[in-house]
Specification:
The protein is an alpha/beta fold and about 450 residues long. Helices cover about 40% and strands about 15% of the residues.
Length: about 450
């Protein structure tokens, strides 16, 4: 029934009043008089009526918590896959609602296809045109563009957070879009979840401000939790949760050129961004120094810096080594099952990994990993048992490790078997689910509760 405010209370619409006249309900009826006079027309007895006691509901009537996931990204690499697969794993207790960029829908990028394939709820930022990347302004015009993007982003997050039980930010850059929403979320008794995906330098002032509102902090490893709390002690007031990324098996049909290239060679695989901070240039130089006639390197990933990619391709071509550049490949498990060695070349002098999803996928496939001691990577790889951890982040150290394992297939197989057992024990979806049980128990609500 439609009503309108008449100054002293809610009054029925003109159509409703006409219907009442035709049906014999006069204007002096108690029901209409109460509408006309609003709350003041109600009797004191009705206002003083005691509320009924709340009914204790059975556990089966618990409702599922809803969390707004800030996900303004166009890539689909380790962090993005980790967030998507983790929320898919716990969606029976915590239902995610992804707030994503409009660009990934217009371009139908793989990250949007993955979110849609899993049936997640999605809403969009108001970025009809691409927003600038959050960072130090290069000019006055760039500063105005950053401020405008942050204002619109904060407005979008504030609107999308209505009706949600919490807001999840997977990195520092997303906190810039939640500076207004975080105080409101906390004032209304809801949660703010922050996930450490990068152990490198963080803007301290942002995390100090956000620490006043963050209620839950997620870490991928126990050592990462200790390091981050030592660097940001103000976050120790929040609930600390250590959960590794789940790694799902992604079966599918490999493209025929990729399938053919995996035969008749000793295959070395790298999965991730082709960028300097990931150490791909060190990998190419080490492979040139260590590769034998049967060795073949497969690089699975795209490059944002195409000039950097062309330089590496020319360097490999000039050295005469067999390097295949496949770009983005979704069915990585099919590649890893046919591989002999996985390399994770992120050097600690450039980047501090919080996990290393490619390593977990290699462990799942049963192949050893060669890596540097970058961030928490060394916590995943046990040197001499499941792989080889290089102590120095230089080409010579990486080349020596490649040379030793490429020449010893028996040792590679033993390390691969140990890696698979470690994956089942600590990084499989069942293990991640067990590690999350304590945190998920704090999300139990009764239906109708706030």
């Amino acid at each position: 029934m439609r009503r309108r405010w008449c100054g002293t209370g809610w009054r029925p619409s003109r159509t409703e009043r006409r219907r009442r006249r035709l049906t014999g309900i006069d204007s002096s009826s108690t029901r209409r008089g109460r509408w006309r006079s609003g709350w003041r027309g109600c009797s004191t007895a009705s206002r003083a009526r005691p509320r009924s006691r709340p009914v204790r509901m059975p556990p089966s009537d618990a409702r599922v918590a809803s969390v707004l996931v800030l996900f303004n990204t166009v890539a689909l690499y380790g962090m993005e896959r980790g967030v998507i697969e983790y929320f898919d794993l716990i969606r029976s207790e915590v239902r995610p609602h992804f707030l994503v960029s409009r660009s990934i829908e217009k371009l139908n990028l793989p990250v949007f296809q993955e979110i849609r394939r899993r049936g997640f709820d999605v809403s969009f930022f108001s970025d009809r045109y691409d927003w600038p990347k959050i960072g130090r302004p290069r000019s006055l015009r760039h500063l105005f563009a950053l401020v405008a993007a942050m204002f619109r982003g904060n407005r979008d997050v504030l609107r999308a957070s209505r009706g949600r039980d919490g807001v999840y930010a997977p990195s520092v850059s997303y906190l810039f879009f939640a500076l207004i929403a975080m105080p409101w979320v906390r004032l209304t008794g809801r949660r703010v979840i922050y996930h450490f995906h990068d152990l490198g330098p963080h803007p301290r002032w942002v995390l100090r401000v956000a620490a006043c509102f963050i209620t839950d902090v997620l870490h991928n490893t126990e050592e990462g939790r200790r390091q981050m709390l030592a660097a940001f002690p103000s976050l120790s007031r929040a609930r600390q949760v250590v959960v590794p990324y789940p790694t799902e098996r992604r079966d599918g049909t490999l493209p025929e050129p990729v399938l053919n290239a995996l035969g008749g060679a000793v295959n070395v695989v790298y999965i991730g961004q082709v960028s300097r901070h990931k150490g791909v240039d060190l990998l190419i130089d080490a492979f040139i120094a260590a590769a034998g006639p049967q060795a073949r390197l497969h690089v699975l990933g795209d490059a944002a810096d195409h000039e950097f990619l062309r330089t590496l391709q020319q360097r490999a071509r000039a050295a005469g080594v067999d390097v295949r550049w496949w770009g983005y490949v979704s069915e990585v498990h099919g590649v890893l099952e046919r591989a002999d060695l996985y390399v994770h070349p992120s050097p600690p002098s450039r980047f501090h990994e919080s996990f290393g999803r490619g390593i977990a996928e290699a462990m799942q496939a049963g192949i050893p990993t060669v890596c540097f001691r970058s961030g928490m990577v060394a916590e995943l790889v046990i040197h001499g048992e499941t792989g080889w951890v290089c102590e120095r982040d230089d080409v010579a150290s990486l080349a020596a490790a490649l040379r030793a394992l490429l020449a010893d297939p028996v040792r590679r197989r033993a390390m691969g078997d140990a890696a698979r057992l470690r994956y089942e024990r600590a990084y499989s979806p069942a293990a991640v689910r067990r590690a999350s049980e304590g945190w998920l128990a704090t999300w139990k609500f009764k239906r109708g509760a706030a």
